[in-house]
Amino acid sequence: xxxxxxxxxxxxxxxxxxxxxxxxxxxxxxxxxxxxxxxxxxxxxxxxxxxxxxxxxxxxxxxxxxxxxxxxxxxxxxxxxxxxxxxxxxxxxxxxxxxxxxxxxxxxxxxxxxxxxxxxxxxxxxxxxxxxxxxxxxxxxxxxxxxxxxxxxxxxxxxxxxxxxxxxxxxxxxxxxxxxxxxxxxxxxxxxxxxxxxxxxxxxxxxxxxxxxxxxxxxxxxxxxxxxxxxxxxxxxxxxxxxxxxxxxxxx
Length: 252
Ligand code: ATP
Known about the structure:
The chain contains 9 helices and 10 strands. The chain is an alpha/beta fold and 252 residues long.
C-alpha cells in the first residue's frame, strides 16, 4: 500500500445493545495530514477509531483506505497500512522485553529475523528508546511505555498512525516529548484527545464529534478558537487560548 487517502462515507454503527454510536459520518483524510478528532465523553471517538481499524465493522456505509475497503477479508492489508496506538500502553505491550514487543509485528508478518531486527531497531531509534530495548515493558514509566507502544506500531511501517489519547496520564515533560515526537513523524496522523492544547500543537485539521455525528470540521486553529461551537459540543477552548483568570491576558 502506498500513501493513501482515507475516505469515510455515510458510516453507521450501533452496538449490539442497540446504542447508536456512529450516525451517518463522512469525511476524507488526505495523505500526510494530521487530523484531530475531538468530542465530549461518549461522542463516538473511540468507536470511530475501532471502525477505522476494522476491530468492529460498520452496519452500513464504507471506509476506504486507498482503494481497499475495510472489511473482514481485507483486515490484514488494512492493518499493514493503519497502525493504532491504544490509549493504555498495557493493552499493547505483552512480551517480556521492549525489543520483543517492537519485533512482534514484523515477526508476525513472517519477515526474516534479519529484517525483523532492522525494522525493530529502526522503530526504537525513531522513538528514541533504543536504550530501553532489553527492559521489561511492565517495569517502564508511563511515558516510556507510551514510547514503546508507539515503536511497536512504527516497526510495521504503517502509512497512517492512529492515536487514542496519546497524552493521557503523562507528566508535562513526557507529554511535550510525545508532542514533539508526533510532530517529527511524516505519517498521516489521526489523533483523538481531550487534551485540546495537544491537538492544537499536533493537528492541522480538526473534526468535532457530538452524539455520533460530525458537528464541525476545519482548520484546527479556527475550530479551537470557536468558543460557541466548542461549548455546544461539551468542550472548552485549549487552556493556552483562554485568558489568564488573574490579569485577563491571553497566554499566547
Ligand atoms: P470518551 O471520550 O469517554 O472515551 P468516546 O467519544 O470515545 O468517549 P465512545 O466510547 O465511542 O465515545 O462511545 C460512543 C457511544 O457508544 C456512547 O454512547 C457509549 O455509551 C456507547 N458505547 C461504547 N461502548 C459500548 C458498548 N460496548 N456497548 C454499548 N454501547 C457502547
